[in-house]
# Entry
Amino acid sequence: MAIPPPLHYPPFNITRSSHVVLTVRDLAASIAFYTRVIGLVVTEQDDDTAWLRGIEEIAHHSLVLRATTEAPACERVGLRVQTEEELDKAAAHFAACGLPSRFVEVPYQGRTLHAADPMGTPLELCARMPAVDRRLLQTDHHPGGAALRFDHKQIHMVDVPAACAFYTSLGFRTSDYIVGRPHEALVGAFMHRKDIPWDLVFLAGPGPRLHHFAYVTPSMIDMFRACDAAGLHKYGSSVERGPGRHGLGHVQYVYFRDPDGHRVELVLEAPHHMTDLEQEPVRWDAARRANTMDWGYPPPRCWFDDATIFTGVTPAAYTPPADRVALEDYLAVRAAPREGG
Ligand SMILES: [Fe+2]
# Structure
């Protein structure tokens, strides 16, 4: 399995993964969850939309919640570009690739380009948002996980090699990748534009669907405070997986499901940077438990199977590998009577 070589001079300059736009059935309930448990700040709110950000962020929003009476979905995944001029280059590049794109008016954002990748993932590119105040020093207003800033998104894709190739052609570098058995298929790719190992993560699954998005939390104490806040505010069952430590990427994590089932992760700071070009992509074997460290429990089946649909996008089917080990399978083996016991 060969990872495509990085493209150091891409057709336009994406700087980072920046935001998501979700639809929710009960806006007040979702705001309560994201402020009390995750620790986000509401920048702006009207009757049917809320714009939220982490306490470190000066950009107007990194999470947009829009009320819906339909099935909850993800409308767009956001990418920042360096300047608004880059958006013209982006539009020209998408047109040259035969991909749809159009400029749109979006509240609290500068020029904004809507586009879709070849797999159908709806994208939203912009360079500017209104600047607001950092809340870092207002420590008496840091509930739950005190989320600092938007970190990354993970997307289920049927064709991970195609996703990896397309985003490489936009200048993303691969920090880590996962191969499955028996044919060395690429089933996971961690890709980045900013100087840590992930902005976009692609994992094999029915897709495209948004598996999760993640915010950085300051410490393990804040991570546990988020879990405690979930319990305190009757969201205890929303803690889906963790706290734990990923083997791949080494970072500590916990996953929650919001009131609509959208998955949000809190992670600590990335353990290393990805600035120097000598760093080659690191290969991981999907069959190795060490991908999630050699302690603790594997993810529950819902973590593997559930994800948020994109508005208007029908995910392609995917058959999970037969050797996948979920928490339920792991516990069934442990519960089985032991020979001679
Ligand atoms: Fe993640």
